[in-house]
Design a protein that fits this description.
α3 packs antiparallel against α4. The relative contact order is 0.09. This protein starts with a helix and ends with a helix. The protein is mainly α. It has 9 helices and no strands.
Length: 263
């Protein structure tokens, strides 16, 4: 069952990745993701259904538009393949449980938000704000756990986690507004919701990992001469990556650390 689940969810991820390419391009421009249909930005010819198969179509077309021959950025198949891999890994991690839909949703918006933040240094409200009610509803379903044992304490912890992480980032922005934007604060609440559901250890590790990974990256850019002390570096991707670390290894890592302190 696990192998079949991973394969099916991975294929589903490829399809979602194709949609995320549309989201990443249109949402920052304030355009609808539903209309009009996708078209070549060079010749404006609508993309045919057979040319919209994730990854495969790009390979068959050799990375060029069928109509005008304009190059199609390699990022498109990479986003599709990356989403498929992320979904497959998420299915392997969560298994056939009620937390799986919540994690898949988080994974999808994480890819979109990370790429948009890299492109335009902004985390759009159109993606972040709906993540609060959607994430809360999906986590409530996981806490209810139909057919199994309910854990409403996890949902309460999720709500508290959202408030705590939002407040922490809000204070950081007040103290040092040049360091990050208010979009990071709003995203922090969403990530706190998820991290809190998994546990306080996950919340702490996820928060710390974001600054650790982002700091290491910034230092690497400075050493390589690719950024200066005043260069703006998008922090959203590191918040999202840190949250992933907190979800996957936060609790065991926190328990290990507490055990070391106790020893």
């Amino acid at each position: 069952m696990t192998a079949a689940l991973v394969v099916v969810v991975g294929i589903f991820g490829l399809l979602i990745g194709s949609f995320l390419n549309v989201v990443v391009w249109r949402v920052p421009r304030g355009e609808s993701v539903a209309h009009p249909p996708s078209a070549c930005p060079s010749c404006h010819h609508a993309i045919r259904a057979r040319d919209n198969v994730p990854v495969v179509s790009w390979l068959l077309l050799r990375g060029r538009c069928r109509d005008c021959g304009a190059p199609i950025a390699v990022r498109y198949p990479l986003v599709e393949a990356g989403t498929g891999v992320l979904f497959a890994l998420t299915a392997w991690f969560a298994g056939l449980t009620w937390i799986l839909p919540a994690l898949l949703y988080l994974g999808a918006i994480s890819i979109a938000l990370a790429l948009i933040d890299i492109d335009v240094k902004r985390l759009p409200n159109a993606i972040v704000l709906p993540a609060y009610p959607v994430g809360a509803a999906l986590l409530a379903l996981a806490s209810w756990n139909p057919g199994g044992t309910s854990d409403w304490g996890a949902l309460l912890r999720a709500a508290l986690g959202a408030v705590v992480l939002y407040a922490v980032y809000f204070v950081i922005v007040l103290v040092y507004p040049a360091g990050m934007g208010f979009g990071d604060v709003k995203l922090a609440g969403v990530l706190g919701l998820y991290l809190g559901w998994f546990g306080w250890g996950s919340l702490v590790v996820g928060w710390f990992a974001a600054f650790l990974l982002g700091g290491v990256y910034a230092i690497g850019l400075l050493v390589a001469g690719r950024a200066g002390r005043k260069s703006g570096i998008p922090f959203g991707p590191w918040m999202l990556l840190g949250a992933a670390v907190g979800i996957v290894v936060g609790e065991p890592l926190a328990q290990w650390y507490l055990g070391v302190l106790g020893a």
